[in-house]
Amino acid sequence: MNHIVTVQDAVTAFADFMEPTSAELDAIEQEMPVILADVDLLDAHIVTLDRTPTELDDRRIRRARRRALAARAAQVNHAAGTSLPGGAA
Fold this sequence. Notes:
Layout: H1 8-12, H2 22-47, H3 55-83
């Protein structure tokens, strides 16, 4: 009895075209502050899932939310600043 197996996954699992390009890695690097701020916000929310939030939990969530919003604003401002032609301010 001959078994039919697929080797396609083994061949393409390590193909060069599946690796991120330099541009994709640069985009991830640019988004990293936003990603880390969102992780902090999620951590603050996760802590309060199984209990009633305390005053300290509320402050931690507010601070994490402000950091996430600030990181997003900084990313948008940076992207807008680099895409304006002619050095317009």
